[in-house]
């Protein structure tokens, strides 16, 4: 209600002094004010037409018309401000009356709080806080489980990536490894063949001895 009263006082500043006093006292006849402003507007328009006719008879026609239009615009703006103020007062009065009705209705219907209701209200508040705490704990647990699942997934992905890398390395090294194995086999085969030749030479039977040399003949006499 205080805010509405303050708004009414601010709106009154747009009205003439005699209308401000009546409105402040709550006695302003808003319809009469609208009638007065309408009559003033008609008078301004009629005077403007007369001035325009007179301007065309003067030497400085444009200057005369400009001044006449300026006066007309200023006076019409003043009327518009007053009409706006009247409309605001009417709306604020209606709003204040409606708010007063609502306040009176609420005052008559509002039961006095009993101790039982206060206890129930406190219990309801505690229940709401407990539900909020449970909900927060559930969210935290869900987040922890999600983090653990993500960690397990990341570990599996890393293990798979490591296995793939090792397999790729083995495939890259396979030709060289095969070549080394073949070279090793070749050398082993050569060594075996060499040993077999040596063994064969050791077991080969020796040939018959040469006949003894003939004795030397005596010199002739």
From TrEMBL:
<protein>
    <recommendedName>
        <fullName>TolA protein</fullName>
    </recommendedName>
</protein>
<keyword id="KW-0732">Signal</keyword>
<feature type="compositionally biased region" description="Basic and acidic residues">
    <location>
        <begin position="113"/>
        <end position="137"/>
    </location>
</feature>
<feature type="compositionally biased region" description="Basic and acidic residues">
    <location>
        <begin position="146"/>
        <end position="163"/>
    </location>
</feature>
<feature type="region of interest" description="Disordered">
    <location>
        <begin position="90"/>
        <end position="221"/>
    </location>
</feature>
<feature type="signal peptide">
    <location>
        <begin position="1"/>
        <end position="19"/>
    </location>
</feature>
<feature type="compositionally biased region" description="Basic and acidic residues">
    <location>
        <begin position="170"/>
        <end position="199"/>
    </location>
</feature>
């Amino acid at each position: 209600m205080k805010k509405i009263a303050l708004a009414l006082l601010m709106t009154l500043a747009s009205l003439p002094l005699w209308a401000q006093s009546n409105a402040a006292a709550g006695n302003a006849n808003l319809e009469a004010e609208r009638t007065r402003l309408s009559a003033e507007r008609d008078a301004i328009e009629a005077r403007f037409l007369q001035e325009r006719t007179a301007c065309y008879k003067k030497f400085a026609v444009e200057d005369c018309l400009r001044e006449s239009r300026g006066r007309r615009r200023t006076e019409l703006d003043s009327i518009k401000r007053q009409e706006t103020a009247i409309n605001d007062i009417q709306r604020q009065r209606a709003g204040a009356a409606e708010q007063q009705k609502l306040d009176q209705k609420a005052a008559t219907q509002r039961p006095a709080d009993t101790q039982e209701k206060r206890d129930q209200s406190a219990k309801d508040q505690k229940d709401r806080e407990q539900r909020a705490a449970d909900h927060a704990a559930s969210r935290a647990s869900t987040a922890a489980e999600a983090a653990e699942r993500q960690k397990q997934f990341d570990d599996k992905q890393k293990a798979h990536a490591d296995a793939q890398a090792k397999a790729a390395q083995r495939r890259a090294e396979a030709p060289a490894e095969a070549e080394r194995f073949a070279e090793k086999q070749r050398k082993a085969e050569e060594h075996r063949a060499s040993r077999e030749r040596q063994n064969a030479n050791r077991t080969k039977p020796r040939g018959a001895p040469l006949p003894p040399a003939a004795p030397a003949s005596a010199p002739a006499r």
